[in-house]
Amino acid sequence: MVTGQNTTGEVEEFKVGVVIDANTSVAKVWLTCIDMALSDIYAYRKTYKRRLVLHVMDSKSDVLDASSAALNLIQNVKVQAIIGPTTSAQAINVAHLGKRYQVPIISFSATSPSISLAQNPYFIRTSLNGSSQVNAIAAIVKKFGWREVVPLYEDTEYGHGVIPYLMDAFQNTNTRVPYRSVFPSAATDDQITQELNKLDNMGTRVLILHMLSPLGLRVFTQAKVLGMMNKGYAWIITSGLGTDLNSFEPSDIDTMQGVLGIRPYISQHKEVAAFEGRWKIKFRKEYPDIERKLDIFGIWSYDTIRALASVVENFQTGPELLQELSNMKFEGLSGVFHLVNRQLQSDAFQILNICGSGIRDIGIWRPSDGTNKLNLRPVIWPGDATEKPKGWEIPLKDRKLRIGVPLKNGFNEFVKTTKNSCNGTRYDVAGYCIDVFTTALEKLPYCVPHEFIPYEKNESGKAGSYYDDLVHQVQLQNFDVVVGDVTITATRSQHVDFTLPYTEGGVSMIVLVKKDLSQDTWIFLKPLEWKLWVTTGAFFLLVGVVIWILEHRVNREFRGGPHSMYQWGTLLSFSFSMLVFAHKERVLSNLGRFVMGIWLFVVLILTQSYTANLASMLTIQRSDPTYNDVNQLIRYGYNVGYQEGTFVFGMLKRMGFDESNLKSYKSPGEFDEAFSKGRSEGGIVAAFEELPYIELILAEYCGKYMMVGDIYPYDGFGFVFPKGSPLCPDISRTILSTREEGRTERFKKGWFKNQKSCADNNDPYGSSNSLTLGSFWILFLITGICSALAVIAFLTIFFYENKQILRDPSITTRNKILNLLRKFCEHDENRLITYFEPPACSDQNKIVDNRVHATEINIDAVDSLPRIHASPMAGNVSARSDNSNAEMGGYTTLVADHNIASGNCIPADSNTRTYVGKL
Q1: Which of 243, 718, 773, 851 is most deeply packed, by most CB within 10 A?
Q2: Above 90 in pLDDT, residue 656?
Q3: For the chain, how far is it from start to end, CA to CA, in angstroms?
Q4: 3-state DSSP percent of the chain in helix, strand and coil, to 5
């Protein structure tokens, strides 16, 4: 009894029953908290009308004893409320009594959600419902990407109550629960060991332990003995064990290294710390022989007494008391103590990691976070591992996953099997299929130890049966998996499971290509690739520019004209006329002749190569025909090919091909050889192959073969697993992820990178037979170097001859540059070159140096002159004929408009009597 001062008069007693397993150490912890709550309430409350008087009865850890104690309190003691009982199983029966006698039953320790508040209207739970923790557990599982978990729980009301809610939470996060492990509450060590061995053989490595402390600690002890607390395992304990962690012995903590746990979050404010200090003093004084620590249930029991004492001041009867308690809220020792519809609301859960000798706080989960938001600090897993467990392993014990792979001599880009140089009895495997499988295996959230075992062909087997025999080895349990270029078929899938295909599926026909290039409109462009066309054109322009630079000061053909664009036309026409050696302008300087000699040699080689390649393209013919009608092949009994050991053999027989006309090949080389033999020598005219192989063949024999006809629908390549294997759907999911990331395509390019790349047959500017720039680059390099040297020599001479301009100190740099450019554009009077020396002229056909008067010239004599003679003083000359004079004496009159050097002769055409030009 707790005494207190009451200034208003007599205090009315409010009788409260307490049903608890009084002889247990944890009950003593709670009773101490209840006693302290009464002391604190009435020590600090100055006035009160009613005072709680507690009547404690021992339930003796038994459901019937708990019900008997509650009934005794209600009928004999006349209590108006009952606090307790301890366990959920006891609470269910006592709650029925509360409903019958309209006495509120208030439990701070019965957490099982199987206690229905709707069916027990007088039951109030001042602890958290066990179902409030399931989303926190699901969030942890989702955080680490585990896809499969197994719950371990005790066969009690406490154990069974949470499981349905836990299953729903895992279902919402797509987490598979393949098995539920149930332990009797009084299980022996042998029973525990037997059940744990069963779990170990199942392969799941994420285990959710939902038990109370006595049984839970024994499970961890046996798990450590069996090696299930080592690296690769993940254990999560629910709040039942999580709330007791502070009370465990060091030896108990040692068996739980790396375990994750959750418990209701209690803020460590100063009131809690002060209360815990006072509680330790009181508990040690009353129970010096018991080592226990304060837990969350003790704090809830303290707040429960405070809530009840607050309500009884105004209400005494059961219904009124129940109504007031059902929805109350105050700031308690545990934080916000908020009841909604007779249920304490959860605030947050603390996530713990058992490591070393202590417990680490690694995060907080709140209901608002759901299962998608959870931030955790680094975790130390079982076995002192820092890398998270993958969550699932093939239950292989001491052996590895046996993976069968085909042993073949051809198409090794898919699977390549070679004997290990260090150990001749073992094999190394590689290839496109192997890369896809190992990548998918690495993306699994669990570890799968494995080894590759080549499958030797059974020589006694029938044609086309090799891959069927390989798949059958999985059914015979000789292999756990088959990895390779194995096609998914309906017949095979009746006996084994396949993953999703990782290649394109289907079968089609391949035949030789017959091309008629003479009908190609753009055939004239195909002898040279486009890079060579562009380079050649660029060098024509380059050489033209170089020749103009070298010639324009000494050659009249590269100077002036009727208008400013005349020389541009001369340059371009000269450049491209060199292609056919038809340029009319003569190159007169030695440097120009040097460059022209080099370039004409290159042009000669290019034109001859172009002509030869074009002729080859126009005259090429193929002797083997092309077929595109399967029925024609069957009707005329033509030989067709198939890859040895594949299901295509059976498909062709079903199509109607005679077995004697079916020829097998092992590799692309044998495939090409079979086509090359011709029909008369037993060769094939067509082959039927799966699309992945066709892609490889067409890449290797670029332009020689083509795929024709229909594509017969079949699935692509898949990996083979036994029926019902849990690994098969997981691998299928990772294959999808690998394909979406584009990694399978990169693997294909990596393994087929040595194959030839085919140009687009429809590209008019390119062909697989076109001459490339790489064949002529050295000629262009020589031309470029010679042109550069010629220009450098020309500029060196030019600057040397005009050094007085460069050295003149009275001229600015700008004017020096302008003078040099002006000089560069002028003709060189000293080096101006003529085509011919002037011919000897008679007195009668000599033009007199006169600006105004006319001179008579004998036309016949003028006509005999071969060419006009150029003079440094030449100017514009016009000559007109006088017909009357010509008729009388054969003479014509020429009029000189400008000063013409004496002694120069003018050629005349007998049919033309007018001459205009720049001399």
Answers
A1: 718
A2: no
A3: 142
A4: 40, 15, 40
- CB of 758 closer than 8 Å to CB of 699: yes
**What is the 3-state secondary structure of 293-350?**
CCCHHHHHHHHHHHHHHHHHCCCCCHHHHHHHHHCCEEEECCEEEEEECCEECCCCEE
**pLDDT digits over 108-137, tens only?**
999 999 898 999 999 999 999 999 999 999
Burial class (CB in 10 A: 0-12, 13-18, 19+), 699: middle
> Which pLDDT score, from 0 to 100, does residue 340 have?
93
Tokens, residue 118: 């709707």
Structure tokens belonging to residue 479: 């292999």
The model's pLDDT over 698-709, given as tens digits with 9 standing for 90+, comes to 888 877 888 887
What are the start-end ranges of the E strands in 844-888? 855-858, 876-879
* Both structure tokens of 442: 């690495």
Instruction: Please choose, from the candidates 522, 521, 523, 514, the residue with its C-alpha nearest in 3D space to the C-alpha of residue 616.
Output: 523
- From the number of C-beta atoms within 10 Å of its C-beta (0-12, 13-18, 19+), residue 428 rates as middle
C-alpha to C-alpha distance for 843 and 919, rounded to whole angstroms: 22
Ordered DSSP codes for 698-732? HHHSTTTEEEEEEEE----B--EE-TT-THHHHHH
Residue 634's pLDDT is: 87
Q: Which two tokens stand for residue 60?
A: 């003796």
- Strand-strand pairing, 891-895 and 876-879: antiparallel
pLDDT of 814 above 70: yes
Stretch 55-66: mean pLDDT, rounded? Answer: 94
Backbone angles phi, psi at 747, to 5 degrees: -60, -40
Write down the pTM of the prediction. 0.58
